[in-house]
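Sequence, please.
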C-alpha cells in the first residue's frame, strides 16, 4: 500500500545490532584465565499479526461472487466439460486461498527482519501509528497465484493446445510484473521509471499474441468509414501495451487506505467473472467461449488469493500490500482483458480509476505541486479523516461528503467501484444491437 505508509529508513535491522559486554578485566592474568566476554544479541523482531478478518471476507466474497455463481450453475446452460474445467479451477483457487492465509504470517516475519515494513500514516498520533507493519506482501500473493495457475495447466490443457502458448505468455507477463513490482518496493523507483515497467512486463504477452488485431467498427460510424471491421495491425499491439501501463498504474495511484487497493481489485475481478460467464452463456461460438473461459481461469485464483490478503489488509491493516500487489493486480486484469477480447468493457470497469487519473493529472504532470503522499489529514483525537487540496478521489470524496473514518471512506469508494461496474453492464445492455 504504497500511498498509506512510511517506509523505515534505518540502515540495519535492529536484530543485527550486537553489544559487547561492558565488563573490564583488571589484570593480564584475569584476561588470560577468564573466558572471552559474553555477547548478547537482541531478540529478533516479533511480528504478531492480528487474526485474519474471515467474517468480513466471507461477507465480501458472498456479495461479489454470488451473482457469478448463480449465472454459472443455474441461469445458463453451459457445456459440462467447460463447467468441469471451471470447477477444477475453483477447487485449486480455494487451495490457494488457504495457502495464502498460512504463508502471510510466516512471510511477514521475514519481511520485517529485512526492514521491509512501514508505519500507517493515517493512524499517526495513535498507538497503531507506531506499529511496524510488514510491507510488500504482494510478493506472497503473486507466488501462490503463479503456483495455482501453473498447476491448473495439468488438468486443463493438452501439450499441443493452441491456448497453452498464450496462457504461458500471460503467466510470464504477470510473473515479470511481480518481479518488477517487488524491485520497486525495495529500491523505491522514481515515477518516470514506474511508467515504463508495465511496458517491459507486457512484452512476453505481446510477442506471443496470435489473436486478431481487428476491431468491430461501431455501427453509427460504418457509413462514414465504409467498412464493418478495421484491422489495426501493430497499432492494436501498441494499444495492448498502453492498456497494461494504465491498468497497473491506475490501481497504484488510487490508494492510501487500508483495504482499498485489494478491495477495488476484487470488485473489478468479480465484474470480469460475471461478464465472462454471460458471454459464454449467450454465445454458440466455441472459440469465443474458450476465450472467455481463459479469462475465468486466470481471474478465479486471483480473487481467491486477494481475498486471503484482504483478510489481513482490511481495516485496521496488519500488512501492507506494496507496489508489488498493485502492479500484479493491474497486469492480471489487463492480460485477461486482452486475451478475452473485451478491453473496451474492461476500461468501463475501471471507470473510477479513469476518473481518478484524469482528476490527478495536474499533480501527476507537475502542473501544480505534488507531495509524495497525497493523503487526507488524520485527527488522532476524533480518528476521522479530513480532505486536503490534493487532487485524487480519496480527498474528493471527503471534501464532497464530509469527514469520516478510514474504514467508512474505503467502503464508500468500494461501493462507488461496484456502482461503476453495474453502470458498465447497464450501458452494454442499452447499446447492444445499436453500437455494435
Amino acid at each position: 500500500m504504497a500511498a498509506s505508509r512510511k517506509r523505515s529508513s534505518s540502515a540495519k535491522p535492529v536484530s543485527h545490532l550486537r553489544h559487547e559486554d561492558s565488563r573490564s578485566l583488571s589484570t593480564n592474568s584475569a584476561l588470560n584465565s577468564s573466558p572471552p566476554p559474553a555477547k548478547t544479541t537482541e531478540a529478533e523482531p516479533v511480528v504478531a499479526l492480528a487474526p485474519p478478518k474471515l467474517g468480513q471476507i466471507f461477507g465480501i466474497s458472498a456479495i461479489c461472487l454470488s451473482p457469478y455463481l448463480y449465472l454459472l450453475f443455474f441461469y445458463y446452460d453451459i457445456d459440462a466439460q467447460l463447467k468441469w474445467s471451471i470447477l477444477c479451477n475453483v477447487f485449486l483457487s480455494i487451495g490457494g486461498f488457504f495457502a495464502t492465509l498460512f504463508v502471510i504470517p510466516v512471510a511477514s516475519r521475514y519481511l520485517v527482519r529485512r526492514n521491509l515494513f512501514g508505519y500507517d500514516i493515517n493512524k499517526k498520533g495513535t498507538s497503531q501509528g507506531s506499529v511496524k507493519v510488514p510491507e510488500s506482501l504482494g510478493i506472497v500473493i503473486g507466488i501462490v497465484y503463479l503456483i495455482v495457475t501453473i498447476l491448473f495447466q495439468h488438468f486443463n490443457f493438452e501439450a499441443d493446445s493452441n491456448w497453452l502458448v498464450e496462457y504461458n505468455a500471460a503467466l510470464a507477463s504477470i510473473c515479470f510484473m511481480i518481479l518488477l513490482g517487488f524491485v520497486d518496493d525495495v529500491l523505491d523507483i522514481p515515477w518516470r521509471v514506474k511508467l515504463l515497467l508495465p511496458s517491459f512486463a507486457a512484452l512476453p504477452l505481446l510477442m506471443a499474441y496470435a489473436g486478431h488485431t481487428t476491431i468491430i467498427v461501431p455501427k453509427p460510424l460504418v457509413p462514414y468509414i465504409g467498412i464493418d471491421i478495421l484491422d489495426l495491425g501493430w497499432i492494436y499491439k501498441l494499444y495492448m501495451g498502453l492498456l497494461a501501463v494504465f491498468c497497473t498504474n491506475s490501481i497504484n495511484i488510487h490508494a492510501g487506505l487500508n483495504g482499498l487497493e485489494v478491495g477495488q481489485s476484487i470488485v473489478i475481478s468479480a465484474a470480469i467473472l460475471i461478464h465472462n460467464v454471460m458471454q459464454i452463456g449467450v454465445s454458440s461460438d466455441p472459440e469465443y467461449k474458450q476465450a472467455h473461459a481463459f479469462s475465468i481461469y486466470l481471474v478465479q485464483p486471483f480473487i481467491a488469493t486477494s481475498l486471503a490478503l484482504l483478510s489481513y489488509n482490511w481495516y485496521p491493516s496488519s500488512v501492507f500490500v506494496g507496489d508489488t500487489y498493485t502492479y500484479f493486480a493491474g497486469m492480471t486484469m489487463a492480460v485477461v482483458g486482452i486475451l478475452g477480447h473485451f478491453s473496451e468493457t474492461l476500461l468501463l470497469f475501471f471507470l473510477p480509476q479513469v476518473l481518478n487519473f484524469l482528476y490527478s493529472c495536474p499533480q501527476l504532470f507537475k502542473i501544480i505541486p505534488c507531495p509524495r503522499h497525497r493523503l487526507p489529514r488524520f485527527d488522532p483525537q476524533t480518528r476521522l479523516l479530513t480532505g486536503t487540496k490534493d487532487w485524487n478521489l480519496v480527498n474528493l470524496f471527503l471534501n464532497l461528503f464530509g469527514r469520516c473514518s478510514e474504514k467508512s471512506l474505503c467502503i464508500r469508494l468500494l461501493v462507488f467501484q461496484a456502482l461503476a461496474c453495474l453502470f458498465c453492464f447497464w450501458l452494454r445492455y442499452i447499446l447492444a444491437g445499436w453500437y455494435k
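The chain has 17 helices and nine strands.
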